[in-house]
Write a structure and sequence with these properties.
The chain is 76% helix and 8% strand. It has 3 helices and 2 strands, in the order H-H-E-E-H. It has helices at 6-69, 71-80, 124-205, and strands spanning 87-94, 97-104. Helix 1 (6-69) runs antiparallel to helix 3 (124-205). The longest helix has 82 residues, at 124-205.
Length: 206
């Protein structure tokens, strides 16, 4: 136990106020992080549903195309259609948190004549399938950017919550206990001093 003096009592009171202030700041930061997390999550969830629908459409159109044009023809188109998108990772920051964001030099979406083959020799189903797969790729890259940000935000919310819990459940109760013990000790000492002074005055007066 800390030595029960008035100086230590004042120091403990200052520390208690500091901890309360720190807890308030951490709670405000956590609230801001949660708002940012929710704002980031909304388009992330919406994009996942859109990707699933687009992917289902791409598979359906690809199956139709393979039935009409044959698998070998579709594979030959795939062989001439790929390209380097120029994927880059760049450092970003949100509320002091650093995370990596995916960026592209070129959009995955292309016009039919930009895919390296004569689109006049393909069916609408194949063109629709290619477009849908490019849309899926674009959405997946966007989701990847969301995911990195979401992970950092979620991890920071957990970290801040743990610090708040330590301050509220361990630090503050211990400070309160020490303050109460010292205040009680000083109060008892003052009462004893007052009692002795009273007895001294009574004896002196007698």
């Amino acid at each position: 136990m800390i030595h029960p003096t008035r100086t230590n009592l004042l120091l403990l009171k200052e520390k208690s106020l500091s901890v309360q202030s720190s807890t308030g700041i951490l709670k405000a930061r956590r609230q801001a992080l949660i708002r940012e997390l929710l704002a980031t999550t909304a388009p992330f969830i919406a994009s996942r549903g859109a990707v699933q629908a687009t992917y289902a459409g791409a598979i359906r159109e690809l199956a139709i195309s393979c039935g009409i044009e044959g698998g070998d023809f579709v594979e030959s188109i795939a062989a001439v259609a790929p390209r380097d998108l120029g994927v880059e990772l760049k450092e970003e920051s949100v509320m002091g948190l650093r995370y990596r964001e995916v960026s592209l030099r070129h959009s995955p979406l292309r016009q039919p004549w930009e895919r390296g083959y004569d689109e006049r020799g393909t069916t609408p189903s194949l063109e629709a399938a290619l477009l849908h797969f490019e849309e899926v790729l674009a959405a997946m890259l966007e989701i990847a950017a969301f995911e990195s940000k979401l992970r950092r935000l979620a991890a920071e919310v957990v970290r801040v919550t743990r610090r708040i819990r330590v301050l509220e459940e361990r630090v503050m109760p211990e400070l309160t206990r020490q303050l109460r013990a010292i205040a009680q000790f000083l109060g008892e000492r003052e009462r004893e001093a007052s009692f002795r002074l009273k007895r001294f005055r009574e004896a002196k007066g007698g």
